[in-house]
Design goal:
binds nicotinamide-adenine-dinucleotide, 2 domains, alpha/beta, Aldehyde Dehydrogenase, Chain A, domain 1, about 15% strand, seven-stranded mixed β-sheet, Aldehyde Dehydrogenase, Chain A, domain 2
Length: about 525
């Protein structure tokens, strides 16, 4: 843990120091305070914005190759320093070594390389052909220019992947970035910013604004675009505030992801996926399996497998590779939400088959933030565990009579982040998948689509606006500019002043020739 406690935090200027109260950062697996970071106020954020804007033109001028070189160096830095980064992530989130390695280090290493190499392809000038006869011979170009200064606001569940990860395409596009990590888990962002500086990132191109919600509010007012990841409630506030300055926003928010297990599913695979993607990272993944609908013929078999697999989970503090399967919960108030959902379900008739208590099995009063891996059955949509985001290690399972009922219940949610369907009949699985109201759906898989950086990842309904990854994941950090370049042309175009009846009639005929023919019903 020494590496965490000795972490350098940004040196605030005198004005910033005056605004900084200092935020304690806890290790959720022990309850110990492991560091303090400044709580930056609006003046500090405005000063950062000024420095970021001053640094951005030179960064943009480096071009894709120059920027890519630094991002590729950072890819190597991350791999060379992976143990140190994992220790930092584990110490401030309470997650396991493996959760940090798989879903953060691997994602980061992949993303630094991907955006270093692919940014140019997504953002280079694109020639457009037009069918408009009057424009034939002119050059039409779609061009992407960086917006300037991007504000990234992140949550606590994936400090590398969901906070720092969104900075990478913004930087690759040529923007300066201010990242406001969650006040609960700011240390990983500070460490990675140090790493980027060691790799040659010019000063002020990436700055970390540590602070609470008010720091985020100040950031929304100070930048050219906001990339927000967090709860739907906060996302709504961010969008309302950004509307005042017409600042564009991209929102990645909460979910209540359903898994549908059809009667012809590979039940063993479905159960493994339900338990793993429901419980890994302590169930604190935006795209976790949050609720399961199982067709009646395989319901008993599925539940029995899920119960056995959940009972076998080793929950505890991760002190290195292989030491625990499920770690602590990162944010203390989230434990209260999980407890509330389980108690609400029990009061309305649900049965707890595994877990169902705070703490860990054998240590209900354990210091830190703990809730046991929990399986619930006899659940329905009157219960919060089936309708509200739980964001904890719980798996409520509901029996359904057929795929129509599964689809109806899966879509009975304000959220629409991700979903999964299990069936050996891939065509049947895909046809169910296409009817689910979710930004992404996996068939015979779950969650793993997130790692395909070529594929858009974003929420439908109250889960999001815009997406990360793919072309949209980097073009959103740019202004699209349409260029029309005219090379060969007369002094005057025929449609210009003065209007005269002969030309107007001729144009009328031309319009009919151009658009009046063709098949119609
Ligand atoms: P949160 O909404 O409480 O906080 C997110 C961030 O917003 C934090 O940095 C916080 O300080 C900041 N913030 C708070 N109030 C603000 C305001 N008024 N203006 C600007 N910023 C403000 O979310 P959380 O509890 O940190 O994260 C958990 C949530 O994030 C869950 O709902 C989860 O589903 C969601 N999430 C979504 C995705 C996705 O990709 N869709 C990924 C990870 C997490």
């Amino acid at each position: 843990m020494a590496s965490v406690e000795q972490r350098t935090v940004p040196e605030p200027s005198t004005a910033e120091a005056a605004a900084a109260d200092g935020i304690p950062v806890e290790n959720p697996a022990t309850g110990e305070v492991i560091a303090h970071v400044p709580d930056l106020g609006a003046d500090a954020v405005r000063a950062m914005a000024q420095r970021g804007r001053a640094a951005q033109p030179a960064w943009e001028a480096l071009g894709f190759e120059g920027r890519g070189r630094i991002l590729l160096r950072m890819q190597k830095w991350l791999l060379d320093n992976s143990d140190r980064v994992i220790e930092t992530i584990v110490s401030e989130t309470g997650k396991t070594w493996e959760d940090a390695q798989l879903a953060e280090i691997m994602y980061g290493a992949s993303a630094f390389g991907f955006w270093a190499k692919e940014a140019e392809g997504y953002l280079s000038d694109h020639k457009v052909k037009t069918s408009v006869v009057m424009l034939k011979g002119k050059r039409l170009i779609e061009r992407y220019r960086p917006l300037g200064l991007i504000g990234v606001i992140g949550p606590w569940n994936y400090p590398l992947t969901n906070s720092f990860g969104d900075c990478i395409p913004a930087l690759a596009a040529g923007n300066a970035v201010i990242l406001k990590p969650s006040e609960v888990t700011p240390l990983t962002s500070l460490l990675l910013a140090d790493g980027l500086r060691d790799c040659g990132l010019p000063a002020d191109v990436l700055q970390i604004a540590t602070g609470r919600g008010a720091t985020g509010t100040a950031l929304v007012d100070a930048v050219d675009m906001i990339m927000f990841t967090g709860s739907t409630a906060t996302g709504r506030k961010v969008m309302a505030q950004a509307a005042q300055t017409l600042t564009p926003v991209s929102l990645e928010m909460g979910g209540k992801d359903p898994m549908v297990v059809l009667s012809d599913a590979d039940v063993e695979r479905a159960a493994n996926h339900a338990v793993y993607y429901g419980m890994f990272n302590g169930g604190q993944t935006c795209v976790s399996v949050e609720r399961v609908y199982v067709e009646a013929p395989v319901y008993d078999q599925f539940v029995s497998k899920v119960v056995d697999k959940t009972r076998a989970i080793r929950q505890g503090r991760s002190t290195g590779p292989g030491t625990a399967d499920v770690g602590a919960m990162t944010f203390a108030p989230q434990v209260d939400i999980v407890e509330r959902h389980v108690e609400d379900a029990k009061a309305k008739g649900a049965r707890v088959l595994v877990g169902g208590h705070r703490g860990t099995a054998g240590d209900p009063d354990r210091p830190g933030n703990w809730y046991e891996p929990t399986v619930l059955v006899d659940v329905d949509h009157t219960m919060e565990c089936m309708t509200e985001e739980t964001f904890g290690p719980t798996l409520p399972i509901m029996r359904v009579s057929d795929d129509e009922e599964a689809i109806r219940l899966a879509n009975d949610s304000p959220y629409g982040l991700s979903a999964s369907v299990f069936s050996k009949d891939v065509a049947r699985g895909e046809s169910v998948a296409r009817r689910l109201e979710a930004g992404s759906v996996c068939v015979n898989d779950a969650v793993i689509n997130y790692s395909a950086l070529e594929l858009p990842m974003g929420g439908a309904k109250a889960s999001g606006l815009g997406s990360r990854h793919g072309a949209g994941g980097i073009r959103k950090y740019c202004q699209v500019q349409a260029l029309l370049v005219s090379r060969l042309h007369p002094h005057k175009e025929p449609h210009m002043f003065p209007y005269n009846a002969r030309m107007t009639k001729a144009l009328g005929k031309l319009i009919k020739v151009l658009y009046g023919r063709g098949k119609r019903d």
